[in-house]
Amino acid sequence: MRSQDGALLTHTILKDTYKILELVHIGPTSRMYKGINIKNSKFIFIKELIWNLDPSLRHQAIEQFKCEAKILFKLKYQNLPKFEDYFDEKEGRYLIIDYVEGIRLNTYVENHRGFIPQEQVIRWGINLCDTLAYLHNQKPGPIIFRDMSPQNILLSEEGQLKLIDFGISKLSPGRTLGIAKTITHHYSPLEQYSGTTDERSDIYSLGATLYYLITKKAPMDSIERSLEEEPLKPCSDINPNISLDLEEIILKSMELYVKDRYQKIEEMTSLLRKIKESKKTTETPKSLSIEGQYKADYKTHALPELIEKQIFFKTKSLTPSKNISGKIKGLRTPDKKRIDDDIPDLLTKGTIVKGKYKIVDLIRANKLSRVYKGSDIKKATTIAMKELFIDIYLKPGERIKGIEDFHAETKTLLTLTHQNLPKFEDYFHYEGRNYIIMEYIEGETLKFLIEGSDNLPSLGIILDWAMQICNVLNYLHKRKPKPIIFRGLCPENIMLDSTGKIKLIDFGLSKLYDPYEQTLSVAKIANLYFSPPEQYNGKTDTRSDIYSFGATLYYLLTGEYPTDAVDRIISEDPFDTEFIKDIPQEILYTVTKSTELEPDARFQSISEIMEILESLLK
After folding, report:
1. Is 594 helix (H, G, I), strand (E, B) or coil?
2. Tell me: the pLDDT tens digits for 450-500?
3. What is the C-alpha separation between 94 and 86, in angstroms, rounded?
């Protein structure tokens, strides 16, 4: 029997052996109960697994977890709980874990007077490093914990740390399931939002945990850091007693990009040991040991009521859910004061630029550019003049190189000739502003056409548009010596001209693709609903355009925006496959495969999509 929220009722007996005493914790992937083994009267933890997965992945996830559980039972380490049993019963999957009396580390920190002494934080850090090293060096492959946070560390009465909640740990390598995308706000690294984790992901989470332990404040979440382009607030700004060496270790372990962190946990361990052995740390009074200090705090602050209600009943917020999602959407809007202050004033009608281009009217504006209708007064032709604001989105350290790279890339655009692209006629820097002169196109954007009509276009028309879009993307992706990634594909950036031809517009985000080159911060500017998750950390390639194509196709078929990539990761909801009736399965497959969250799961080239569309257009 279960309660209305799905939890097992008190006194439920599992496997004729384990009796439920109380529900102590609920997470996104599991429920934890305190129980008792009725055969030996020993207290235990009973973990019930919750699978909020796409049904197509559920069986695979269960089999994978069974495999992982067998390995977890073999783990024997002082800072890990002892796994005693695993079984399926009553449509549930359960782990039996050795019961540990203690307090969650976040509760201990919250109730500690003042900052935790640095020496204690370092000892805990070394302890946790050693535990991760034990997991990462398992054979045949590393075990990635993937959920290191103060909420998932138990401090026993003896002062010993125990990692708990192995619900989202995984054996590496291998493709990560949707469950891996469960996020612990403030503590999960950027790559965990797309499920591509490795040992360095644990290093990030450990650094974030140490940040909290030394400052008593959770660090800024990784995806918010990426979107806001703000450096992590130094620990010393909060706790002035921290040594520079420890602060440097914490900040390096929390670098947004995995290649910039420590590559092995042993590197971090070694540096922490050096600080411990030096005389730079703040000494703990000799009259009170670390363990003794814990016991004193435990008695002073963690009264029985606190232990009962906070140690286990204080549910951690693992998944940012809609509150964080809304905040992220706010971060993606272009109305930040700094950006607004830097954007130059509108060019007025009649203004002459470079002595030859006259402003006629403003056509549209967005966070990256303004497009004016103009005239080339020397040729007596109508042109479109795009004013670009790329400079203001670059970090100070990126600005010189970024502008140089963009000028070089824009010159490449002038060489493009394709029926679904506007003709690029000129590019120049004038009076502190960047301009591209393009062919003026009479027509409307697909967004305007869809929103302005009571009826959706016929399937035949949509397939024709889709094929034209694929043709031009294929042309861009096959450019030599480097592919061109459009990175801004969405209904607002696709025009239908007066002859029925599709035209891609707004090349403000495009780039020449080099897999070995770090993408500049401007690449992280994303189109809500249409950008893939990797665009939020700037790691785009040709498959990023494929995601945006699939999202655009969804919009054309339904007249509705698809769920944004970040929202899909946060909520772990499967992609809506019931979006429209009476369409060929090939189209449904094209949309869903194109918009897979992981690039490796999408079509790997636009030509694969073209083959499907060609078969439907015959």
Report:
1. helix
2. 998 889 999 999 999 999 999 999 999 999 888 888 888 999 999 999 899
3. 6
Q: Is 409 helix (H, G, I), strand (E, B) or coil?
A: helix
What value, to the nearest 5°, has the Cα angle with vertex 193 and ends 230 and 224?
20
Q: State how far the Cα of 179 lies from the Cα of 50, in Å rounded to an integer.
A: 10
Tens digit of each residue's pLDDT (9 = 90 or more) over 20-33: 999 987 766 678 89
| pLDDT for 429 | 81
Q: Which residues pair with 102 in a beta bridge?
A: 156
Any idea which residue has 């403030």 for tokens? 186
- Note whether 122 and 140 are within 8 A (CB): no
Report all structural domains of the chain as residue ranges with CATH numbers, in order of start: 13-97 (3.30.200.20), 100-319 (1.10.510.10), 340-617 (1.10.510.10)
What integer pLDDT is reported at residue 324 of this predicted model?
40
Which tokens hold the place of 33?
């109960």
DSSP 31-56: EEEEEEETTTTEEEEEEEE---S-HH
Give the pair of three-digit tokens for residue 374. 């103009």
φ/ψ of residue 92, rounded to 5: -125, 165
Residues (pLDDT < 70) of the chain are 27-29, 51-71, 90, 165-182, 194-195, 227-230, 279-344, 366-368, 390-410, 507-525, 537-538, 570-581
Nearest alpha-carbon partner for 419 in 504, 306, 513: 504
Instruction: Compute the CA torsion angle 109, 110, 113, 117 (nearest 10 deg).
Output: 20
Q: Which two tokens stand for residue 472?
A: 């031009």
Count other C-beta atoms under 10 Å from residue 482's C-beta. 14
- pTM, rounded to two decimals: 0.56
- For residues 540 and 530, what is the distance between their CA atoms, to the nearest angstrom? 13
CA–CA separation, 37 and 58 (whole Å)? 29
DSSP string, 190-235: GGGGGT---HHHHHHHHHHHHHHHHHSSPPPPHHHHHHHT-PPPPG
φ, ψ (nearest 5 deg) of residue 414 = -65, -20
Ranges of beta strands (E only) in 50-174 are 83-89, 92-98, 102-104, 143-144, 153-156, 161-163, 170-171
